[in-house]
Design a protein that fits this description.
Layout: H1 2-6, H2 15-28, H3 41-48, H4 52-64, E1 68-71, E2 75-78, E3 88-91, H5 95-105, E4 107-116, H6 120-126, E5 134-143, E6 146-156, H7 157-160, H8 165-170, H9 173-179, E7 184-195, H10 198-204, E8 211-221, E9 226-234, E10 239-242, E11 245-248, E12 255-258
Parallel strand pairs: 3-10
Antiparallel strand pairs: 1-2, 4-5, 5-6, 6-9, 7-8, 8-9, 11-12
Length: 269
């Protein structure tokens, strides 16, 4: 079980847990870089205004998570390739086609599959009425065998019955829906941040409470019907979002606009 390897007992909301999350976020952002040492315990305690005992507990949790290692004479050093050198990127201006392409260039592992009543928020987003069920599926997507995203999808039952559980484990969902006759027309996506809950942390091989990118998407067909609700969580050390902006306009009307990459030019490495 990954939880035993990546999780150490830190009370959520405690000082040690807060320091752990702050240091984990700094490491994910390359500060310090792999191979470099963190400041000493005394310096960290001074910088964060806590005791050395609190710092030591946070560092123990980082070591259990595989992010750092203790070296005699060198202090606490950030481990190289904590993300195994595997990562993906996507441009915010063309995110939808890139996510579809990503589904074709990576692999998935199906964790859960069932037909059930939708959660209230999902039912509202998809415009479902009382008694309408959804296919609720959970998958982990991997690149070169390393997990980078945790995907939870809800699809109205009548649409989901056009493909099988085995199909979902081998083919991107949006492609399955189009093969089943759904005319996808548009989608609304929201990107934010969250912390890894225990089950997600286990699947993504991160510590409980690790920061994750969160993407929620509602896809609609040509008639405006909600056909898919996706809640995706991404490891920030293996997936990032970028946006290129151009300065356009004249005089006082000059402003920034995103550069839109055509679908055939937005492949994910």
């Amino acid at each position: 079980m990954h939880l035993d390897r990546h999780q150490i007992s830190l009370t959520e909301g405690s000082k040690a847990h807060r320091i752990y999350l702050l240091l984990q976020d700094a490491i994910a952002g390359g500060r310090p870089a792999p191979g470099q040492a963190l400041p000493g315990e005394n310096r960290l305690a001074q910088d964060y205004g806590v005791s050395r005992v609190t710092i030591r507990r946070a560092l123990d949790a980082l070591e259990h998570a595989g992010l750092v290692e203790r070296r005699a004479g060198s202090g606490t050093v950030v481990r190289r390739s904590s993300g195994d050198g595997v990562s993906l990127w996507a441009d915010m201006a063309s995110l939808m086609p890139q996510l579809v392409e990503m589904g074709q260039t990576t692999t998935a592992r199906l964790l859960g599959f069932a037909y059930t009543d939708p959660a209230p928020a999902v039912a509202e987003a998809l415009g479902l009425t009382a008694g309408q069920r959804v296919q609720h599926a959970t998958r982990v997507r991997l690149i070169e065998g390393k997990p980078f995203s945790h995907l939870t999808t809800d699809v109205p039952e009548d649409i989901a019955q056009r493909y099988s559980e085995a199909d979902l484990a081998t083919t991107p969902l949006l492609r399955l829906m189009e093969m089943g006759g759904v005319r996808l027309d548009r989608a609304h996506q929201t990107v934010s941040a969250t912390l890894a809950a225990p089950a997600v942390a286990d699947a993504l091989e991160v510590a409980v409470g690790a920061p994750l990118l969160s993407l929620v998407r509602v896809a609609r067909d040509a008639d405006g019907r909600g056909v898919e609700h996706l809640a995706a969580l991404y490891r920030p050390d293996r997936f990032r979002l970028e946006m290129t902006l151009d300065r356009v306009g004249e005089g006082g009307g000059r402003h920034w606009e995103p550069v839109v990459v055509p679908p055939d030019g937005g492949d994910v490495p």
